Amino acid sequence: MGTVTRTVDETELAEWMRGMLTGFLLSATASKEDVELRRGGIDFSRTQGAFDDGRCVGTFRSFAQRITLPGGAAAPVSAVTNVTVSATHRRRGLLSGMMARELRAARERGDAAATLTSAEYPIYGRFGFGPAVSAASWEVDTARTGLDRRYGAPPCGGRVDFADGATVRELAPALHERVRTARHGVVDRDERWWRLATGDLRRSDWTEPFHVLYRSADGRVDGLLTYTADDVWTAKRPQNTARVRDLVAATPQAERALWHFLLTADWVMTADTGLRAPDDVLPLLLPDPRAARITVQADFVWLRPLDVPALLEARTYAVPGSLVVEVADPDGYAAGRWLLDAGEGGASCTPTTRTADLALGAGELGRLLLGDESAVRLAALGLVTEERPGAAARADALLRTSRRPWCPDTF
Ligand SMILES: CC(=O)SCCNC(=O)CCNC(=O)[C@H](O)C(C)(C)COP(=O)(O)OP(=O)(O)OC[C@H]1O[C@@H](n2cnc3c(N)ncnc32)[C@H](O)[C@@H]1OP(=O)(O)O
After folding, report:
1. From 3.30.1050.10, 3.40.1190.20, 3.30.470.20, 3.30.1330.60, which CATH number describes the 307-399 domain?
2. Is 214 a known active-site residue?
3. Atom 8, ligand 1: which residue's CA is nearest?
4. What is the pLDDT of residues 204-251, one digit of tens each?
5. Where are the domains of the chain?
6. Which family does it belong to (predicted)?
7. Is 124 a catalytic residue?
8. Pocket of ligand 1 (CB under 6 A)
9. Residues 6+ apart with CB under 8 A from 377
10. Are 273 and 244 in contact, with CB atoms under 8 Å apart?
């Protein structure tokens, strides 16, 4: 019998997880604890497995997600994750089949797009995904920042305090919701996310982090920093690295105070920022920005448009204007010629017979939707075609945003 791809049921979870961990080169088996932990956080109707003679050789699942669009509206999307095909069965079309099924189901559910964070760049463009949110990471030499190490936080009227996991679960979700609606690219976090982040639910590789909350002068929780630190000493000198797991702040004061706290902490000689926004303010918060060395600058969240009017009508635009885009999509979901009309009272996006200004593929539309990429740049690369002179610059004026999108979460 050949390989069969289908949704999995509860009894197959251990085998499915073994397949996934093998595909990710993590482990040849899945521990009982990790299987039980996963059971509570998986929608089996959205979990596919490819089986060959009872052995799971392909894994794929999705979950409901909301991603913030420019202007603050949240688009319902299908987040794709845990994609693997066993080395023994690669390049036979198993991923292609699972992706086709998922995109069909997502469109039927009414999702505006599919999203994912891609393990390798070349995998998902062929399925209509484009890199929509990028990320950057810095390594900070704390001794060189020029920040005054005599003080733990700048004098801005607020305070920083360590917090335990239970306090974070109580206070941080509301903070995160404020951050989510204020910044496009941010995705929602459910209760399970917070339980996993704070050790209330633990995977076998869990290490306990430190949590620090920033409160404004009037006592509002405006920021959260979660980090781990190692314990390295050489010749009686601390050489410790602090690694940021999470830093979300609802105000510039909170953001400044939390970075200042971490970068001036005794014994912390290096800080690894983890993945941040590509235009994170961090380097410029330092009297000497060169103390922050960029270690990653790369694509991060990929987006596959499924419902073009829903996406273009829900976001806001920097200036009023109109644009006709001709979208090519072999799978059909985003295909068509669309008239975007952005005005003071909102935007409309309708099918049109007018001449197109720009022609592009679904993945390129995905790249432009959150305002991170430039149509002029894509035109220079031959990835979008200007059907009318100046159309790419007009698209940029409409679609680009003053701050770049940011997604704090890997999923
Ligand atoms: C959202 C996430 O979970 S990201 C994690 C993705 N998983 C991994 O990277 C784990 C290791 N890799 C794998 O498990 C597999 O190789 C996968 C899932 C990336 C690909 O699965 P496959 O079943 O081999 O893909 P499939 O056979 O459908 O390939 C379709 C096409 O994509 C191409 N392709 C697939 N993977 C890659 C890749 N990593 N690099 C370049 N091209 C690729 C294939 O060559 C094929 O091209 P063709 O149509 O021109 O022949």
Report:
1. 3.30.1050.10
2. no
3. 84
4. 889 999 999 999 999 999 999 999 999 999 999 999 999 999 999 999
5. 4-128, 136-296, 307-399
6. Belongs to the acetyltransferase Eis family.
7. yes
8. 23-24, 80-85, 90-96, 116, 118-120, 122-123, 126
9. none
10. yes
